[in-house]
Structure formats: C-alpha cells, structure tokens
Design a protein that fits this description.
400 residues; alpha/beta; Rossmann fold; 2 domains; eight-stranded mixed beta sheet; six-stranded antiparallel beta sheet; 9 helices; 23% helix
Length: 400
C-alpha cells in the first residue's frame, strides 16, 4: 500500500512539473490548433457606409449582398421613387458585392426607405435610425436643412412610450406622449393636442418620421406656439387591410373611454374645451371628424390633414360609412349655433396631387353649408409626410 501511494504521489508531481510527458511515459496528443480570432472589422468583407449624406444633399444608399441578384430602393417619399413602397430604383453592384445608388439634390427632410433584396424587403443593416409603421419598420434618413423640424439648439421636451389598459378593448395598448420643455419641474398645467396618424402608420410614426416633438420644440422656443402636451395614440384597433374598414367605432370608444381620461388623470393638462385640440392625417383626419364633431363641446380646435369624410364623394377608400351619411347622422350638431361659437379653429389642408383632394373639397363645402367657419389650404404636394409635417407646423401655431 505504501508503494502504491508513493507511485501516485510521484505521478501527480511529475504531471504538474512536465506536462509534455504522461505518467505512462507516452507523448501527449498535441493540442488542436485554434484559429486566430480576427481583429474587429477584419475578415468581414468591405466596410459599408449607408446612408451617406453630403453637404450638397446627395444621398447614397449601400448594402452588402454579394449573392443577391437584384436590389431595389423602396420608400414612397423619396424623390423620383413613384409607385408604391416596393417600387423605386435599381441599385448597382460592384466587384466586392456592395450594391449602391445615389440620389441627387434630395430636398431637406426625413425619409423612410428600405431595400428590396431579391423580392424581400429589408431595412438598412448599417443604419440604426428607424421608424415604425402599422405593419413593419423602415430605415430613416435625415437630410438637414429644414430648420422648422431639425434639431436646434433650443430647450427640448420629451417623448414617452406609454402603456395603458383599454377597458373598451379589453387589452393593453400603447401611445406616445410629448411633454414640453420644463414639464418635469412639476409646475403648471398645459393645453393638449391629440394627434392621430394615418392608415399605414402607428402611434410612433408622428414622433419619428413626423418629427412632431422637434417641430413643437422649435415653435415654443421661437414663441410661435404655446407649450403643450401632444398625445399620439394608436389609431388601429386590429389588423388593417383595405376593404375591412378602419375600426372607427372601436377607436372612438377607446379614445373617449380610456385615452382622454388617462391623459387627464396622469398629466397636468387643462380639462376644458378651449384647451383641447384634435387633429390627424388621412385616416386620422377622418377619425378627427368622427370623434370631434359628435363631441364638439369637448374640442375648440380641429385639424384635418389630407382627409375628410370618407365616401362623401360617392366613392372613396375603404372605411366609408354605410347607411345614413355623415351629414345625416350629425345634422343636429352641424346646425347647432352655440357649438359653432366655441369652435375657435377648424383647419383643413390637402395637397393638390393628393388622391383625397376631392374628398377634402367636398367635406369643406359640406361644413360651410352648415355655417362653419372653415379654413382650407390647398398646397403643393401629395399624400406624403413631406406635407404633413408642414401642416402640423402651421396648425400648431394657431392653437390655444
């Protein structure tokens, strides 16, 4: 037994001193060579910068896709794109597998885009800036030069993602809420603007591609608008597709039962008519009318961007109400002179090339027929964020 213990002790000692020889006198198996870990950025293909914006407003988009057969640039607001979101221009591939396209003299602004790689839409993997819409995410590029919506050296408010429980819809919902500079000090109350998005967007859209927070920041700093709270709720209450309607009734219930009470309970807002405004673009403009007119005693300011009463021209997009017309349903309110007296601003704006321009014109004429003092601006442009940001800039200056 003593001999065995001695041998074991010797084996342990020799193993610790000379690792090149085993206790059995056999040469050890050489270690498996390890591949050298590449340095950061090495052996990863060409480095891609995208998007690249130059001082003369050229914008170059790039994506590394060496095995792709075709790549197209998508984005309806980008100059020269035409068609839908998946139309656009072809990119060209170089010898390193990088696809590239340059747009010349892009007007200052903020633009959503994506790549269509062999039929599959993808966001730009080299660009962390994104913007949500109703069913997908877009990459976002900034072309500086639009002072009214660019970030300026002024006090800035904050935009928060707010989760609330909708008792009307029996589920949790999300909205974005802008609070003006200084709100966090805990002092004072503010008027409130409820700002609604369009059919292909979501509650995040107004604060990303719509630049709502920066637009209001700059107006407040220039003393062109009063400090206000801006509530940007989710206008869709379920999956959206043309032909299935817009869920106007469900959203109206959610808005009146949960969104407004939540804001007035949890934020320092004035809860009276003269300090409430509601506005929206496209679908959100129609929702503004569907909420604002039946509840006109609650709102002193209404804004309708690129929209109107859907179906008023006899056609119109999906979501037009069946049965009695909007005018027939709300005749008593439309003809109430006392409600008109408290309506301080009824503001419409639509682009001349907008497919809803006739809807806007017919809606404005209907309200004028009932004695409403309607402001209607027909501008250059189409159904895009290019005009909607400008409309918010003009509308907000006239509130409260």
């Amino acid at each position: 037994m003593k001999i065995i213990n001695a041998l074991l002790k010797y084996a342990v000692i020799t193993a610790g001193i000379a690792s090149t020889t085993s206790v059995l006198g056999q040469a050890p198996t050489p270690p498996t060579p390890r591949a050298e870990t590449p340095r950061f950025g090495a052996a990863q293909g060409p480095q891609v910068i995208s998007p690249e914006v130059t001082p003369d407003r050229k914008v170059t988009f790039r994506i590394l896709a060496p095995k792709a057969e075709s790549v197209r640039l998508g984005g309806t607001d980008l100059p020269g794109q035409g068609g839908g979101a998946n139309q656009g221009r072809n990119l060209t591939k170089n010898e390193q597998g990088v696809w590239e396209i340059t747009l010349e003299s892009v007007p200052p602004g903020y633009y959503r885009y994506n790549f269509n790689v062999d039929g599959v839409p993808v966001i730009d993997p080299r660009n962390p800036a994104t913007s949500e819409s109703n069913a997908n995410t877009w990459s976002l590029v900034s072309v500086p030069g639009a002072d009214f919506m660019d970030a300026q050296n002024v006090p800035h408010g904050a935009v928060s993602k707010v989760t609330y429980y909708s008792t009307a819809l029996k589920r949790f919902r999300r909205m974005h809420i802008y609070t003006p500079p200084g709100y966090e000090s805990g002092e004072g109350r503010f008027p409130v603007l409820y700002l609604l998005h369009g059919a292909f967007d979501c509650d995040e859209s107004w604060s990303s591609v719509g630049r709502a927070g920066f637009i209001i920041d700059n107006l407040i700093a220039a003393k062109k608008a009063k400090p206000m709270i801006v509530v940007m709720p989710a206008g869709h209450t379920g999956p959206f597709r043309f032909g299935a309607g817009f869920g106007f009734d469900e959203f109206t219930q959610d808005f009146l039962t949960d969104i407004m009470p939540y804001v007035e309970k949890n934020y320092r807002v004035y809860a009276d008519r003269k300090n409430r405004a509601i506005a929206g673009l496209s679908m959100g403009g129609a929702q503004t009318l569907n909420i604002g007119i039946p509840n006109l005693a609650k709102f002193a300011h209404l804004g309708v961007f690129s929209s109107g009463v859907f179906g008023i021209t006899g056609g119109g997009p999906a979501g037009a109400q069946q049965g009695p017309s909007f005018e027939e349903q709300h005749k008593a309110i439309l003809d109430d002179p006392q409600l008109k007296e408290g309506l301080k601003l009824f503001w419409f704006a639509t682009g001349k090339d907008d497919f809803l321009v006739n809807t806007s014109r017919a809606t404005v004429e209907m309200f004028k027929k009932h004695g409403f003092n309607v402001v209607y601006n027909e501008t250059e442009g189409a159904h895009t964020w290019i005009v909607w940001r400008q409309y918010l800039h003009e509308f907000a200056q006239q509130l409260f």
